[in-house]
Write a structure and sequence with these properties.
Blueprint lengths: L7 E6 L5 H13 L3 E6 L1 H11 L6 H9 L5 E4 L18 E7 L1 H9 L5 H12 L3 E5 L6 H12 L3 E2 L13 H15 L13
Parallel strand pairs: 1-2, 1-4, 2-3, 4-5, 5-6
Helix pairs in contact: 1-7, 4-6
Length: 200
Amino acid sequence: MTHSKPKSFVVGITGASGAVYGVRLTETLLSLGFTVHLVVSNAGWRVLKEELSVNISDRDGYLSEKFRDYPGSLLYHPIGDIGASIASGSFRVEGMIVMPCSMGTLSAIAAGTSDNLMTRAADVMLKEGRPLVIVPRETPLHAIHLENMLKLSRLGVRIIPAMPAFYYGPETLDDIVNFMVGKVLDSFNIEHALFRRWEG
């Protein structure tokens, strides 16, 4: 009798403000029993330090402490490890989410510039026809940003801007973060209870 492996997702955290989004997404996927292949850009680690007071001198220690109590499995891949499993199209995952996504990373993905593991993994999603979700976090947006998003959207990439709703009555920052993570999970048809849905 064969047992199916837990579904796997790639999560990318870049240097855009909003590192908490990527952390909460990772926590949620792990809590649901999924395997997460995590990639954090160098600028992403800087934002984790600035916004969440992460000790980035001990990256492995932080990840082990932060995500150890969840039923899912976390696999961390350094941004420079271009030979990692997720750099190959023959390695199967359900999809990839870049949350938050900087305009620099978005531009590199739109241009097909696979010069690090983050952009290579995204390129693999595109070439293999697997779901790729990008959560841009920038404001205001100029024409190049918008054109890059349009280009990716036309390739089938799901663009979910970090634009929280307020109809459900958020009371805390956590509520707003959970809404955005919930919208990402919705795009993969993953059941969750992160926010109250509109029922009319």
